[in-house]
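hey can u check if this looks right to u? its 300 residues, i copy pasted from the old doc so theres a chance i mangled smth
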Amino acid sequence: MKLSSLPRAELRRRLRQEGLGLNIGPFTIRLNSPLTVVAEGLEQLYGAFTLTSDTDFIDFRVALNAPPGLRRWFRPQVIFSFDGFIPFKPLPQIQAFAMFEWGLNWVIANNAHQYLIIHAAVIERNGVVCILPGTPGSGKSTLCAALVCKGWRLLSDEMALISTATGDIYPVPRPVSLKNQSIEIIQNYSSGAVMGEVVMDTAKGTVSHMRPPQMSVEQSAQQGAPGLIVFPKYTAGEEPCLVSLTRASALLKVAENSFNYSVLGLQGFDVLGDLISKCDCYEFSYQSLDAAKETLEALI
């Protein structure tokens, strides 16, 4: 049963009371929240996701609630909690759905150590998975969103999950996070991009999320085989420039972008070394999204 099949009143009742269970890639979550902005964000962006059954094991239990006291009414705020633990300071309540996305990233990165987790967008074309590691401002999410709008499969905007047992990449095709100018760029680039509410004045600037393609969500159970690692960098005024990396250089750069490489220790080194051995690795600077698309599709 998909979230989109729930009547609005039932969706909001579940969020307020027993919680709403969702299958998100290899994880099951249960979300509790009485906040309208959270319900609206789920309706806009999570309609294609399936609901958990009453007998499913729940991996992560999270909640978004108003704090007690005056902050419930005066300049309302929201608190994110994971199994009763509150890892972040409260944010303005209008940022509640964005906080759900950011909080779930934190929960996965800090608990799913059956995977080597790399901070990267992950997309697939013709059976080849391309990992796009990147620091904030590199343009990875913008490039990811553009390629997904043009038919690439979305595995994740935020993290590559590499199984420590098999080396396969597990999809987590959640909404794509876009910031500042990237929001308008993607809206102009693709008329098919469905955007959530635009929220201003966050710690990351102005943010919005793009709905993941239904096909990508429906293929969440299909793992991918790594084939490319590309470090993107938006550079104004330049033609696309693709520079091959040695495997040693690529390993060091990917390790720097990993959430839990040091936690996994020797196992993390072995998994990362196996990943690098399977991939062609590049640095890639670009300005035009169309030119970037042509360059990456030529690699495939």
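The chain is about 30% helix and 30% strand.
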